[in-house]
Write a structure and sequence with these properties.
With 165 residues, the protein is an all-alpha fold. It has helices spanning 7-105, 110-164. Helix 1 (7-105) packs antiparallel against helix 2 (110-164). The protein contains 2 helices and no strands. The protein is rod-shaped and about 155 Å long. The chain has a domain at 70-165. The longest helix is centred in the middle third of the chain and has 99 residues, at 7-105.
Length: 165
């Protein structure tokens, strides 16, 4: 099983070429594996960033929901205060109306008329002051409700933006 002397150099050359081809194939496979490993590492980094972003977005959603609940409670409280102020105003108006009726019943006597007129003028002035004060309170309550509503709308818009992400 010995090769002829002419065939030996050819076999060595073919063997060397085969070894070089095999070495080239190994290098290509190694580079391909290295590139795949880099892609995998990049994908893992992106996954971690996405998880962190999702966690942050969920945290923001919880904060916004908490803010919305607080704003709703504030609106309800302001509405109750406004309703109470309206009731008080109605009660005061009926008290003024009762005082006016009493004054009109006392028109018969001149002395009582003068006293009644003076009392009526004072009652009207007090009512006007109370009406102005109540009007100011209602205006302030309305401004507060509008500001709260604006904050609620902004929070809802932020929540929708966070939900869209």
């Amino acid at each position: 099983m010995s090769a002829s002397p002419n065939r030996l150099p050819t076999l060595v050359i073919v063997n060397a070429i085969g070894c070089l081809a095999l070495a080239g194939f190994i290098v290509v496979q190694w580079l391909d594996g290295h590139a795949t490993e880099a892609k995998l590492e990049q994908a893992q980094k992106e996954t971690i960033l996405e998880k962190n972003g999702r966690t942050e977005a969920e945290h923001k959603v919880k904060l916004f929901e908490s803010d919305i609940a607080g704003l709703k409670a504030s609106i309800e409280s302001l509405q109750q205060a406004s309703d109470l102020a309206q009731k008080e105003l109605a009660e005061k108006n009926s008290m003024v109306d009762a005082a006016n009726k009493t004054l009109t019943d006392a028109e018969g006597k001149v002395k009582e008329w003068e006293d009644a007129l003076k009392a009526r003028d004072e009652a009207i002035a007090q009512r006007d002051e109370k009406l102005v004060e109540a009007s100011k309170k209602l205006t302030e309550a309305n401004s507060t409700i509008l500001a709260t509503r604006k904050r609620l709308d902004e929070a809802l818009a932020e929540l929708k933006k966070a939900g869209a992400r």
